[in-house]
Every structure is written in structure tokens, then in C-alpha cells.
Design goal:
single chain; alpha/beta; 9-stranded mixed β-sheet; two-stranded antiparallel sheet; binds zinc ion
Length: 242
């Protein structure tokens, strides 16, 4: 009997181990904008053991887009506001994502690359720092306001990224006047007048799924349980092949 019990326990252990999914390895790309590192990393750690993270700062992080380094992570999380990129770096960057490395882009990563329109195509958005003409339309410099309480509306609680979520409140920074690509799937909106109405969306770039979340300036958002849930579900969703 004892032997049988041990045998069953062994079988159970093997089964559980083989069914336990491999963690999703995220690469957080930073640089070009300061942030509260400790609180931000606490948010990343709060995503649980099924998501592991490493942080790479630009410009050194450009190496991670090279073919030889792409199998070191599963999902790119952008939290950078980097501006300079060479032709070779841009080719590797875009190819890495179009080839299948998915992206969750947060907050000021919408403001990166003032002079590289392909980045705006990758994430489907752009905060303009200067008057810019894009796809035949003229944009004026965008504006921002810090430390506002405002409501975030969940467009579709059945979308995998926002599943199980209700409208919620954040204390965060708003951006107004940024470009949002036609045809993106809207995830989140707000009626806060100092913000562009669409503040979260999904799209595809090549083979990859992309999620963009405008929120995420500071610790109150890093600690917001709704934002944490959103980030986790965004990472899980982009990581799924279809
Ligand atoms: Zn900010």
C-alpha cells in the first residue's frame, strides 16, 4: 500500500511538472526617461512566477534585437523614450518584431523616436514633440498633464487583455493630441478632457501582436491592481501565437 501511494505521488508530481507552463520571459526596454525603478520592479515582480523579467537599457539594449539574442526572451515590454537609432539598429528592431517578437508598449514609449516613423507604425501611435506631417495629416506638438484622477473605460470586457475587468480610476499623467493608427482594436478610453480619448489598443505588426497602454507614469499606477491585471493579461495575450 505504501509503495502504491508513493508511486501515485510520483506520477502526480511528474504530471504536474510536465503541465506547468514555462514562464513567459519579458525583456523590459528602458532608457531616455527616468522612472521609479524600485516601484516599477515591484510591479513586475507582482505579475507572479509565470512571468519573469530582465531590464535592458538603450542604447546597449539594441543588441537584444539582433537575431542571435532573440531567443533570450519571449515578449518585449517598452518603457523607454529613446530617440536616436542608426539604420542598422532600426532594421534589426523592426525585423525582430515583424518576425514574431510581440510587444507591450507602456506610457512614454509612445513618445520615443521623433524621427523614425516605422516605430510609429510598429506601435500604432505617436506623441509628437514638434509639428509633424504623417500619412498626409498635420499634427501639432502634443501636451501632457501630471497627477490627475480620471476614469478609464473598458471597451470590451470580453477582450482577452481586459477580460474580467470593469471601468476603473487611475491617478496618472494624460497625453493629448497623439496619433492613433486607424483600425486598431480599442481596449481603453477616457472622457478626461486633457487626454486623447483612446488610451489603450491592440494591433498586429507583421507576425506580432502589439498592445499599447498610455498609462504608467508613476508609482500610483504601478501599484494600481487594475493596471497590474491589465499588464499581466496584455503580456499573456501577446505571447500567445494566435
Ligand atoms: Zn510620464
Amino acid at each position: 500500500m505504501k509503495k502504491l501511494v508513493s508511486f501515485l505521488i510520483l506520477i502526480l508530481t511528474v504530471t504536474i511538472t510536465s503541465f506547468a507552463a514555462k514562464p513567459i520571459r519579458i525583456l523590459v526596454v528602458t532608457g531616455g526617461h527616468g522612472y521609479k525603478t524600485e516601484e516599477f520592479n515591484q510591479m513586475l515582480a507582482s505579475l507572479g512566477p509565470a512571468i519573469t523579467y530582465q531590464v535592458a537599457e538603450l542604447p546597449g539594449a539594441y543588441d537584444m534585437f539582433l537575431p542571435g539574442n532573440r531567443d533570450k526572451y519571449d515578449v518585449l515590454v517598452f518603457y523607454h523614450m529613446w530617440q536616436t537609432i542608426t539604420y542598422e539598429q532600426a532594421m534589426a528592431f523592426a525585423e525582430c518584431i515583424s518576425g514574431g517578437k510581440p510587444v507591450v508598449a507602456l506610457h512614454h514609449s509612445i513618445c520615443a523616436y521623433d524621427d523614425w516613423p516605422e516605430y510609429w507604425n510598429i506601435i500604432g501611435g505617436k506623441y509628437f514633440h514638434k509639428p509633424t506631417t504623417f500619412k498626409g495629416k498635420e499634427y501639432q506638438p502634443c501636451s501632457y498633464i501630471h497627477d490627475l484622477h480620471f476614469n478609464v473605460k473598458v471597451v470590451d470586457p470580453k477582450n482577452p487583455v481586459t477580460k474580467g475587468m470593469k471601468d476603473f480610476e487611475v491617478f496618472d499623467e494624460t497625453y493629448k493630441g497623439y496619433y492613433v493608427e486607424d483600425g486598431v482594436t480599442q481596449l481603453l478610453t477616457t472622457d478626461e478632457p486633457s487626454s486623447t480619448p483612446v488610451i489603450g489598443w491592440t494591433k498586429k505588426y507583421g507576425k506580432s501582436k502589439i498592445v499599447v497602454l498610455q498609462s504608467g507614469h508613476d508609482a500610483p499606477t504601478f501599484e494600481n491592481p487594475d493596471f497590474r491585471k491589465l499588464l499581466k493579461q496584455a503580456i499573456e495575450w501577446v505571447n500567445k501565437a494566435k
